[in-house]
Amino acid sequence: MKAMVLAAGLGTRLRPLTNDRPKALVEVGGRTLLEITLARLREFGIQDVIINVHHYADMVMASVKAAGNFGMHIEFSREEILLDTGGGLKQAAWFLANNSGADEPFILHNVDVISTIDLQRMVQFHKQNNALATLAVHDRKTSRYLLFDEHAQLCGRRFVNEQKTELVRPAQHMAELAFTGIHVISPRIFPLLTEEGVFSIVPAYLRLASLSERVLAFRADEYYWRDLGNPENIRQAEQDIKAKLVG
Questions:
Q1: CA angle 190, 198, 185 (to 5 degrees)
Q2: Are 48 and 3 spatial neighbours (Cβ–Cβ below 8 Å)?
Q3: Which among 71, 108, 156, 207 could disulfide-bond with 183, CB atoms 3.0 to 4.6 Å apart, if both were Cys?
Q4: Which of 10-14, 152-156, 173-177 bottoms out in mean pLDDT, i.e. has the lowest?
Q5: Which of 64, 76, 204 is nearest to 133 (CA)?
Q6: DSSP state of 121
């Protein structure tokens, strides 16, 4: 099984920690965000990983090389301009697509989140439901909700601050859930991504859901999760690691 780590962002919310380094190399409890993410993937038996890089790209690549690729097979997808989540994923299709014809899914994981989400259970859920994409979500407050129907199928999103709701499928009952930045995706998605250049993956998921493709919610409420996108959350995560709430 393969994985992609999204690590190309500028990390503006993490300043001043990212004034002289990419967010992937910001440290939490003596380890970089990238090392923590790769260790999690390796723990679940994943050995083949591609990392997208842009901001301080050479620094990220040198760090991985110095660490002996963390004992994994690691490739890089260098973005001359930031391609956003969808564009970055599409550029890495050469690595993630399965040319054998098998529909073996891969994991897409933000570098700036830490969690104890059971990736094996998530992959099993994805396969059992023949999903195109499975999104780890939970019930927490956020400014942007994804909306899922009673069958856990993506049917829209809601922007709290803008007081705007976008529906792409009818639903009698909808759950408003917060995305964690962890996906399981079938390589079947690549021919369906008609978007080009710079684009976010969430609008692409919504478009595909409107066409009856199975984009499903994996409820991760029982697991620890934290966004590491700002210095305050970095400090809290360090306390959580000391308290052994997360590894």
A1: 30
A2: yes
A3: 108
A4: 10-14
A5: 204
A6: H
pLDDT digits (tens, 9 = 90+) for 82-99: 999 999 999 999 999 976
- Compute CA 13 distance to the chain's CA centroid, rounded to the nearest angstrom: 17
Number of other residues whose CB lies within 10 A of the CB of residue 107? 25
Question: Measured between alpha carbons, how far is 153 from 98 in angstroms, rounded to an integer?
Answer: 25
Token pair of 219 as six digits = 């409820």
Question: Which H or E run includes 209?
Answer: helix 201-210
Report helix, strand and coil shares of the chain as percent, to nearest 5.
35, 30, 40
Collect all residues with Cβ–Cβ distance below 8 Å to 82 and sequence separation of at least 6: 8, 9, 10, 54, 88, 198
In DSSP notation, 33-58 reads HHHHHHHHHHHTT--EEEEEE-TTHH
Which two tokens mark 19? 């004034």
CA-nearest of 87, 77, 109 to 201 is 87
